[in-house]
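Message: Study each token:
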Amino acid sequence: MWQLLVPAITLGFISSFHCVGMCGPIALALPVHSLSNTLKQLAVVLYHAGRVTTYATLGLLFGLVGRQLYLAGFQRWFSIAAGIVVLAVVIQQQFFKKNGGNGFIQQLFYTVQGYLQYVWGKSSVFKFLFIGMLNGLLPCGMVYFALAATLSFSSPLHSIFFMAVFGLGTLPLMALLHFFGAKYFNLHTRNTLRKAVPVFIGCMGVLLILRGLNLGIPYLSPYMGKNPSQAIICH
């Protein structure tokens, strides 16, 4: 778990720069202005708890797929392939014209947005939990890259842990966003933070490749083994 803790929380913190740029408007627009101070704090906690819950659930689903890759002996090669894809996407987005977007991603965005609008109008304070859970489903490149990393894990528990810690890693900067609001996190600041994200994504792609190379370097490229461990039969 320690080998997952450091990269997960680091990736989460790096991703929070992207979160401020992309999800900042939602966080700033949370309907908490009419609530008491206690309920405001509870609403913010529920909102972020919802996001982390969604990330952990997605970690479970992708972890189950990763487990099958591990059992099939494809874990290393998938990690290398995922790293190459990540680097290719960064290069395409930075040096070539962006395309019109993926139809499935756009449909997902509109579907989640529709549910957000429905939940937004509810009066219960627990709606903030569901707003956070739906927010976690909005299309986000950083979440997708984190999920790609979980496919190289051998256990769904590791994937759940990684994604939960990833979500926790986004909290410090997002908490500052709630505390200081638009005064310090205006559009210019958010756009500036977003510009630094591709560099970190590229670093993650390199780390995925290094992980798949199986170099035996703790944290950076831990030894995975060529095949799943064989069961020991005692006679």
